[in-house]
Amino acid sequence: MTAETGLRLGVNIDHVATVRNARGGAYPDPLRAARIAEEAGADGITAHLREDRRHISDADIDGLIEVLTVPLNFEMAATAEMQKIALRHKPHAVCLVPEKREERTTEGGLEVAREENRLAHYIVPLREAGCRVSIFIAADKRQIDAAHRIGAEVIELHTGAYCDAHAEGDITTRDRELEGLREMASYAHSLGLEVHAGHGLTYDTVQPVAALPEVRELNIGHFIIGEAIFMGLQPAIAEMRRLMDEARG
Fold first, then answer.
1. Is 65 within a domain?
2. 55 catalytic, yes or no?
């Protein structure tokens, strides 16, 4: 985290594992990507261990816990299996995300308000183990209130709708989604929640989100890994870091 911005960059390495798994071998190695990301200035590493293990594997999580010198943000569904894994490893942060087997990527925020009682009990052991509990949610006051009530310390606002509208050239929707992110980041901060954001961010969309003063961390993966094919992982991360700092500066 650069001292002048106070804005952290978490690099998600899931899709290095996606490429590896396409051939079923050991290359490219997500752990190597994590080490390069650290060297390039990432403030943390994000990895989502899915129920179907479509990209990150249990062995990857074992390795990351062993080698990382920056915090690991362990994304997971709120299941008994994942809770057990998180309690064994005790990562710096646990981010609860919705998960459906048929989805290509996380399609929306977690429905906290509808499952408030279950999730309130679910996160207690994680907090007692020393993990910071984050909830990945839409920029929606009802969900933010529920996340606050259950004892989450962090929320991560889903930026996918904003990014999708930008990609489709729908300026009206893009600006409306950005305004919603701005309002809900401010609201969550007023409740004492730490605010993160992520999903679908690119070089073209990151700066308006990075400029939101309440946002303390951006988690970005797919785009960075995609750009790394053309320019290398370290330069791809460095450019994202530059744009974030410029927006905050």
1. yes
2. no
Which entry of 55, 166, 196, 199 is annotated as an active-site residue? 199
Given 15, 48, 55, 196, the catalytic residue: 48
Q: Would 163 be classed as within a structural domain?
A: yes
Tokens of 174: 């893009």
- Domain, as residue range, for 60: 8-248
- Looking at the structure of the chain, the number of domains it has is 1
Among the listed residues 193, 157, 156, 191, the one whose alpha carbon sits nearest the alpha carbon of residue 177: 157
166 among known catalytic residues: no
Q: What is the pTM of this model?
A: 0.92
How far is residue 45 CA from its own chain's centroid? Answer: 9
- Whole-angstrom CA distances from 203 to 1, 34, 40, 131 are 18, 20, 16, 31
CB 206 within 8 A of CB 244: yes
Selecting among 38, 75, 156, 217, the annotated active-site residue is 75
pLDDT at 1 over 50: no
